[in-house]
Write a structure and sequence with these properties.
- With 178 residues, the chain is of the alpha/beta class.
- It has one domain (19-170).
- The protein has helices at 8-15, 27-36, 48-56, 77-82, 102-113, 130-136, 159-170, and strands spanning 4-5, 20-23, 43-46, 63-66, 69-70, 73-74, 89-95, 99-100, 118-124, 142-147, 151-156.
- The strands form 3 sheets. A 7-stranded mixed beta sheet has the order 2-11-10-3-4-9-7, sandwiched between helices.
- Strand 3, helix 3 and strand 4 (63-66) form a beta-alpha-beta unit.
- The longest helix is centred in the middle third of the chain and has 12 residues, at 102-113.
């Protein structure tokens, strides 16, 4: 069973930007991102606020990962309802904080093949879903994730970016369960 666990020594490395930072936290930030999109294969969002803002700006992501939380606190009802776009099919997965479970990996892989926009509701923590999304997304896709207090990060999926992220995933070993 494949599973990834985030070791303490990798936390700082994951805080580094893996794409382009768009400062701010509102719909205007989402509009700035949209202006820079160049016909991506897929648009993938990770986080409730960035998903809400992109939808508010008129773009329905192909895949969005949400957990009804931001900065470890519940999001507003407006954001929760705002991420439930009528075009989305919602799937729920379990993914404890600091891990990427096999269930999440399977859903990411299936989502990449889906023609239907998906809202993947994560019971636990969705933050790390950006990593397998970048590793599995078709080339020229974009993964957009929120960076609290700073803005949103746009990652363009290239072969080099996939290798960089896969290298991080390979270092996320889980301790053997006893």
């Amino acid at each position: 069973m494949k599973k990834y666990c985030l070791p303490k020594e990798l936390r700082e490395e994951l805080r580094k930007l893996h794409g382009e930072l768009y400062p701010g936290d509102g719909v205007e930030t989402a509009r700035n991102i949209i202006k820079d999109l160049k016909a991506p294969a897929k648009i993938i969002t990770v986080g409730d606020i960035i998903t809400f803002n992109l939808l508010s700006a008129g773009v329905v992501p192909n895949i969005s990962f949400v957990d009804d939380r931001t900065k470890r606190n519940p999001v507003s009802n407006e954001v929760t309802h705002g991420t439930k776009h009528p075009r989305f099919k919602t799937i729920t997965v379990e993914n404890p904080p600091g891990t990427i479970t096999e269930e999440l990996l399977q859903e990411v892989a299936k989502a990449m093949k889906s023609e239907i926009p998906l809202r993947i509701f994560v019971k636990g923590e969705e933050d790390l879903a950006a990593l397998p999304s970048i590793a599995m997304a078709p080339l020229s896709s974009v993964v957009i994730y929120g960076l609290p207090e700073e803005g949103a990060v746009l990652v363009r999926v290239t072969e080099n970016k996939r290798k960089e992220i896969q290298s991080l995933l390979d270092r996320m070993k889980c301790k053997e369960e006893k």
